[in-house]
Amino acid sequence: MEEISSLMHGFAVALTPMNIGLMMIGILLGVLIGVLPGLGGANGVAILLPLTFAMGSTPAGQVSAIILLSCIYWGALFGGAITSILFNIPGEPWSVATTFDGYPMSQKGKAGEALTAAFTSSFVGAFIAVLMITFLAPMVARFALRFGPPEFFSVYLLTFCSFVGMTKSPPFKTLAAMMLGFALAAVGLDTVTGQLRLTFGFTELLKGFDFLIAVIGLFGIGEILLTIEEGLNFKGTEGKMRMKVVLETWKELPKYWKTSLRSSAIGCWMGITPGGATPASFMGYGVAKKLSPNGANFGKGEIEGVVAPETAAHAAGTAALLPMLTLGIPGSPTAAVLLGGLLIWGLQPGPLLFEEKKDFVWGLIASMYLGNVVGLIVVLTTVPLFAAILRVPFSIIAPVILVICAIGAFTVHQSMFDVWLMIIFGIIGYVFKKLDYPMAPMVLAIVLGDRAEDAFRQSMLASQGSLAVFFSNGLVGSITALALLMLFWAPLSATIARLRR
Amino acid sequence: MSEHDKESGGAADDTPAASYRTIDAVTAVVIFAIGAVVAWDSYRIGAKWGSDGPEAGYFPFYIGLILCISSIVNFINALREKSFAEGGESFVSKSSLRMVFSVMIPTIIYVAAIGGVGPVPGVGIYVASVIFIAVFMLWLGKYGWGKTLGVSIGVPVFFFLMFEIWFKVPLPKGPLEAMLGLD
User: Fold this and answer.
1) A400 falls within a domain
2) pTM for the whole structure
3) How many structural domains is chain A composed of?
């Protein structure tokens, strides 16, 4: 088994005292980000990304940098559950489904059980997803080595069409948000022809829009505005963790292995296709409610109702890194930010990464195993600390988070113009969120816009402008067909349902 | 804020500031305009097939076009929603909007204070952050001066140590830092 030896090599790369230390810092920062309103996985990693610019100049530093950033992401995935269970306030969108049974449990005085179940399920979901990445990613990468521009464009098409077909937002709103992202990506100097596009004479726009600014504005400022509007005041139960409760809950959890496996499968699938952690958690919850013998008790404080969404969310969050590493196509906004980090450090994500940067890839995969073990231990021991942070009133937390966002936006390019852009994106984020325009496809379009366009242009050049190139062989043809199927999924499935009746 | 708003302030005011339908429709119109601008500018620089392949505006032109088409659909869908008189949803209530503005306006002033506007020089991010956090705590949080000063000075000092000294990432500084020789 080649993968096993590669993985062992990866452990050797990742297991340095410095990297373990970075894991702890990353997880703690991540949980903090996950707990605080307005800071989430995507914008938290985006804000901290500039701090790793210097780190990423050496190969060993690149591994350390990705370990730090990916652990922030794992931490954020863990942290969302704390607020959901103790305060009935989802710290992250993917932990909304955790409130359904998590909060009733804590009201009954079973907060310790609910938290243990949530963290352990998160760990299980992530672990299964990492196992999948370990064995599937090298295969996907090897397969993708044969891809040419038309194949890559068809995969981009599939990614974006899946958004239209799979998100719950109205399809034309998804389309509009996505196209807005592509339009923003096109702004600036066109690298092929050297022409200026959509700059309208503003020199600040020459280098185009940076998606990190968009992420900080849309998810950070926008989220703060929404939170304020809801008039947030934290009223929650105590977050105490006793070792006895943890052990007793662990004894009970294996009973729900079926739910865990189901949710992991849902999560892995939703993570690879760009469904993301949030729909995965709802789907995991919904499926468990339908199939579990305790389904009728869901919503009243059933431990299985915590296990199902948490496993799925964490599996999806982890699985989102598979297409990011192997194809250069992130499965979630946070994976997109990590991809941005790779590009900044001079790494080209895609199939060649597995050939040329073995240390980096396997170091990262090994760190996913380690990071989640470290994460589980850290969160189980630090819950009371984070529950205490949540009692800090909003009139202190809000300005501090806004200051952090401003610093984060400034440090990307050392530019005040970016801070103003962040504010504008914040207002857009607030309005879009309320009107149900999805932000994930917009962010992904800003990140992938240039690459998708390059792939499109190269395909068009090769075919002399004929769109038939996207059906020119079996592989590209079936991906394109699948993309079109996803695009028209909603009307198609409605028609099928009508015909059946 | 108008005089009327001030009078009714304090108690929760659930009267809507705008209907969902209006904002939905206006947003669709704005996105249509953006799409039209994108398509027009792409057409200007060439959206056809040039001598050496697709021109610079080829791809964005179609992006602009799809933006326009999808926002027309969104606009029509918005108009189909119930208006206020028919019991439609509210986009934001007046009291919520006031809360949002009470955060948004200080934030905009804060960003302006960091880098300055036009000929007016900024005070740098650290001084601006001290004032920003203090205003929030005094005005929205109703804290005493002692606590306010502790937090509002402590947090920026922590960020100063972290960014300028630990990570060596320079942030915008103003006359105070220059005077103290921290530049």
Assistant:
1) yes
2) 0.85
3) 1
